[in-house]
Amino acid sequence: MQHATIEAEPTPLSIDLDKTAVVIIDMQRDFLEPGGFGAALGNDVSRLRAAVSPCREVLAAARQAGLLVIHTREGHRPDLSDAPPLKVERGNPALRIGAPGPMGRILIRGEPGHDIIPELYPIAGEPVIDKPGKGAFCQTDLELMLRNRGIETLLVCGVTTEVCVNTTVREANDRGFRCIVIADCCASYFPEFHDMGLAMIKAQGGIFGWVSASKPLLNSLAVAAR
Ligand code: TIU
Predict the structure, then answer these.
(1) Given ligand 1 and candidates 120, 161, 164, which is best to mutate, with the most ligand atoms within 8 Å of its CB?
(2) How far is CA 135 from the centre of its chain?
(3) Is the distance from the beta carbon of residue 182 to the nearest atom of ligand 1 less than 6 Å?
(4) Partners of 154 in beta bridges
(5) In this structure, how many other beta carbons lie within 10 angstroms of the beta carbon of residue 102?
(6) What is the pLDDT of residues 94-142, one digit of tens each?
(7) Which residues are annotated as catalytic?
(8) What distance in Å separates the CA atoms of residue 172 and residue 32, rounded to the nearest whole number?
(9) What stretches in the chain show pLDDT beneath 50?
């Protein structure tokens, strides 16, 4: 058993690193690069770049400390059979899910835009969860994977803070997993939603989970890796 103390809000935490996984949510070209799904929804995708460098550091430290790392990707089958029509039919028809874009068909599995950005690319042995919804537990085998490995705590990174990160944290919390959201490893197209998304998680004594910054987490992981 390898314990680490994490400076977090609303309280510091002691966690068992053998039962802890890093979950990196949807750091895909479709959300972070021009011409993808995020841009098709009318967003300034450059706002998400702030999370890339902190995520890289946490990813490197987690690999060094031997933590389980899981990546997720939001997207759909090429025939759209797993895409709810109400999700597909929103927005400009020329830019909808499945429409052709500069990175291939928007939000479709197997297309260049659907893949994870090169800076955070998974390595062998790191599971990638393909999810059709915003939450990583909805219609996926993530919960099974976590339970099979005895995971209790999730260190959550990714985009966007108030959409897929928040949805996943709420799902995880209801399933009995302790979530620590790494604030600077998350980002939103809307800075105010990022702030409120984090505030909602840690309010009321940590109603959905805890919030930490990457620096204290990196310090804790470095001590544990020694
Ligand atoms: N639109 C938006 O902010 N996010 C998404 O559609 N998906 C994720 O957050 N991954």
Answers:
(1) 164
(2) 9
(3) no
(4) 21, 179
(5) 12
(6) 999 999 999 999 999 999 999 999 999 999 999 999 999 999 999 999 9
(7) 26, 131, 164
(8) 24
(9) none
Count of Cβ atoms closer than 10 Å to residue 111 Cβ: 20
| Maximal C-alpha separation, the chain | 54
Q: Measured between alpha carbons, how far is 170 from 21 in angstroms, rounded to an integer? A: 16
CA geometry: angle 51, 56, 58, nearest 5 deg:
95
CB 181 within 8 A of CB 23: no
For residue 174, count other CB atoms closer than 10 A to its CB: 10
Q: Is the CB of 48 under 6 A from ligand 1?
A: no
108-to-33, 113, 114, 148 alpha-carbon distances in Å: 15, 8, 6, 29
